[in-house]
Structure formats: C-alpha cells, structure tokens
Amino acid sequence: MNDALTRAWRASRPACSGGTVASYIPALAGADPSALGVAAVDAEGRVYEVGDARRRFTIQSISKVLSLAYVMTELGEEAVFSRVGKEPTGDPFNSIIRLETSAGRKPFNPLINAGAIVVSSLMPGDCPADKGERFRSYVGGLVGRPVVERDEEVYLSEKETAARNRSIAWFLKELGLLEGGVEDALDVYFRQCAVSMDAVDLARVGAILAMDGIDPVRGSRAMAARTARVCKSLMVTCGMYDGSGEFAVDVGVPAKSGVGGGIMAAVRDRLGLGVYGPALDERGNSAGGLAALRALSDELDLRVL
Ligand code: GLU
Q1: 195-229 burial, b if ≥16 CB within 10 A, otherwise e?
Q2: How far is the CA of 60 from the centre of ligand 1 (A)?
Q3: pTM of the predicted protein model
Q4: Which fold has domain 2-58+197-300?
C-alpha cells in the first residue's frame, strides 16, 4: 500500500502545476500550489501517508458531508430531506438559479451551497458559535480528537466576502426553508467550511463511510449505517461539483472535494482516502488530488461503480 501511494503521489505531482489556488475567499489565496499529500486508512485501521498528508487546510465543501451526517444523526433523515432533495444539478456549487425555476423550490441536494446552508441552519445549539463548536466536537469524535480546529482567518475572510452565499441564504429564507435567521445560518456554514483538517483525517472519515459507519481504527461504530450510505450515495452523484459524472467514470468511488484542495473518498469495505492539493482545476477540484485518485483507482482496482 505504501508503494502504491508513493507511486500515485509521485506521478501526480506534475498535475498540480495545471491548477490554480482558489482566491474568491481571499485567505485561501496564500496556499502553496505545489503541495500534494495522499493518505489512506484500510479496513484494519492501518494508516498510510505520503507527501503533505499532515498539512492542515480548510475542508470547505467537504464539511457538507459531515454536517449532513451530523444533522441526520441529531435530528433524523426526514428533518433534512423534507427541506432538501437528493438529485444532482449539473450546475456549479454556488448556483442560485434552480431555487427559482425548479418546481419543488427546494435545494436539489445537501452538497451544493443552497442545500448545505439549509442543513447548517438545522444544527442544534444556542447560537452560531455554540452550533459550530458542537459540530467540531462531532467531527473530532470521528477523527479521534476531542475537537477539530477552525481556521479563524479563513472563517472571517469568507464571512466578509460571501455576497453569493448571502443571496442564496436570503432566497432560502424567502422560501421558508431556513431554521432561524439568515446571518446565523450563514455564520454556522462559514464556521463549518473553515474547519481545518489534514489528508489523514479525511482518510479516517472516508474509512468510516467505507465501512458503513464502523471506525476501523477503533473497531467500533461511529455512525449509523444508513447515514453513511446516504452520504456515500450523494457523494457519487453530487460530490465532485459538475465533474461528478466524469469522476464516477474515471475513478468510480464516492468522493467529496472542497475548494481548500481536499478530497475525501470511500472505497466500500476496503479504504478511506484523503488527498490534499490546493491547486484546483476549472471545476474546483484538486488537480493533483484528482490525478492521484485516478492513479490509485487504476493500480488498486478500486472502482465500485
Ligand atoms: N465555503 C465555500 C463556499 O461556500 C465552499 C465552497 C466549496 O468548497 O465548494 O463558497
């Protein structure tokens, strides 16, 4: 496994130079575009890593899978899916257009911004700070720490500049889909996006999903099987932005990426994978990370689709 990881990492490093670091959230612009880390956790809980696998970054949209799992755990499936659909859109992650034009008038799925902001608004807690903290404890529980950190600079940077997400949230309010106020829902969302983790952490959560909720590192259940399955299904259809179809064909495993450069993947009964490479392709997916996952899928025959 170590050799496979190292080969995939080495072969994928040149792909980083074909991407660009996200800058629409100003604090993300300083990331090192040549960074690339790959990590795996297998069914026995063994951890493998190469390159920048311990470099922390903000998980951004990967948090949408974690907030979905968290709110499903706390409030049940119906609380989420009465307000958010399960269908892919083929539109960019921050698109607003279908909120007005689709018949159902609810976000298509929880992995686009509109759906994720609804899910954030449902999190339990007294105020955004409390909700954010409880969420970080939940994620910490998945990766074996009391709590995961938040990158304060990235959090504030997004909060100060998120005109598009504000538009989406106001639209959601008008549709009656938000629990509580608009700024509160956004604040929780920005907090969850600014959670900082590394590729090894992502591989650990990926492994829990891969094992239908059993944490192979601790050998105990960390998440209901149904929750893990719902998350994985949505990752297959909606996890890689409007590149999800191509990713399903090329790599063939459930995965979720974020504009911070992370990708988390789950290979049923076999592996959790985490990659970090902040240089992004034109769809917002890590260029080096995609190359590494393609290489690993080929070499280890990971396709489950
Ligand atoms: N916080 C980011 C946003 O809402 C997340 C985007 C992403 O990673 O796709 O724009």
Answers
A1: bbbbbbbbbbbbbbbbbbbbbbbeeeebbeeebbb
A2: 5
A3: 0.96
A4: Beta-lactamase (3.40.710)
